[in-house]
Amino acid sequence: MSLFNWSDKFKIGIDSIDLQHQKLVEILNELHEAMLTEKTELIMGDTLNKMVTYTQEHFAFEEGLLRQAKYPELDTHKKAHEAFVAKATALSSRFSEKKQTLNVETWDFLKNWLKNHMLGEDKKYVAHLKSQGQ
Questions:
Q1: Is the pTM of this model over 0.70?
Q2: What does the pLDDT read at residue 40?
Q3: What is the pLDDT of residues 91-102, one digit of tens each?
Q4: CB-based contact 94:31 (threshold 8 Å)
Q5: In terms of Cα–Cα distance, which of 132, 112, 93, 121 is closest to 28?
Q6: What is the distance between the alpha carbons of residues 17 and 27, in angstroms, rounded to a whole number?
Q7: Cβ(32)–Cβ(109) under 8 Å?
Q8: Can you tell me the distance from the alpha carbon of 61 to that of 85, in angstroms, rounded to the nearest whole number?
Q9: Helices marked H in the chain — which ranges?
Q10: Can you tell me the distance from the alpha carbon of 132 to that of 68, in angstroms, rounded to the nearest whole number?
Q11: Taking the domain 8-131, which CATH number applies?
């Protein structure tokens, strides 16, 4: 049961990034499914780690495009990425140390951050990237 359904409103119009965003949504829904079906902590932990790792890869890719295009707001955008990675990594660490559970609050944080970032911050750079031939 997916709680975060991908739709065209999340597309930014750059295929490589849209595909990566779809993958992030897919992993987030895998995490939600693992929580709902009470999968073992190992599976939930692996899925959370997968989310963190893929997010870092996506952010590096996106920042590379923005750097190449000389996006003037790159530093601000990168700081938002760094803040998310720090929080998600801390959640993952606390979960693996059994100091944090994967619950609706955790899932909501991940979902809302990703959704708001795609609809807000990521949409801001589209015109600039396209003007640079991306």
A1: yes
A2: 63
A3: 888 877 777 666
A4: no
A5: 112
A6: 15
A7: no
A8: 14
A9: 15-36, 41-68, 74-96, 104-116, 123-131
A10: 9
A11: 1.20.120.50
